[in-house]
Amino acid sequence: AADKIRLIPQDFFAEICEQIIQHLNHKIPGVNTAELCQRIQTSGVEINIGDLAKIANILSFLFSTAARNNLSTEELVTTLGSAGSTLPKHALQVIRHVWNEQGKAIAASEDARNMATVGQFVDMKWKLGVAMSSDTCRSLKYPYVTVTLTVADPSGQLTDKSFEMTIPQFKNFSRQFKEMASVLETV
């Protein structure tokens, strides 16, 4: 991971760190690694989304562990330096700056010791479609609903999950959401 971090320009690395801190402070639902990866690639750096997601996971783990252990900026940087870390100098400087500026907010939050271990629902999109034909059947005229869920995993990386349902399945899905809404209104 340190080799991939070396490739990332300091300003982009700082942006990733900032977004992770904001995510851990529950200010944003997650880190859009796909958009960041595209911007980094546009700047001329060759990195793939998988590597960027790994870096985001490592940084999220680093910051949440530092918050759980209530580390000061110097303790965090010293620990990173003494752990045989091969992090580039610019990355250590960014981590020092971001933790010094915003780390205490995570450490002070009452959730710091119980960081979420499940994903967070961010958005849902759906569309109605009709399958007109296929290579094995000339006339389907089969309606379906495609649902795309955007979920932020515990590290903050946003992912889309898509699935299709028949109309009866979608009606059942919708009915269950209505039941959840009515239960939530009583809370």
From TrEMBL:
A Pfam family recorded for this sequence: COMM_domain
Gene behind this protein: Commd6
Protein source organism: Erpornis zantholeuca
A single GO molecular function term of this UniProt record: NF-kappaB binding
Residues in COMM domain copies: 120-187
Protein name: COMM domain-containing protein 6
Family: Belongs to the COMM domain-containing protein 6 family.
Signal peptide positions on this chain: none
PROSITE patterns (alphabetical): COMM
Function recorded in the entry: Scaffold protein in the commander complex that is essential for endosomal recycling of transmembrane cargos; the commander complex is composed of the CCC subcomplex and the retriever subcomplex. May modulate activity of cullin-RING E3 ubiquitin ligase (CRL) complexes. Down-regulates activation of NF-kappa-B. Inhibits TNF-induced NFKB1 activation.
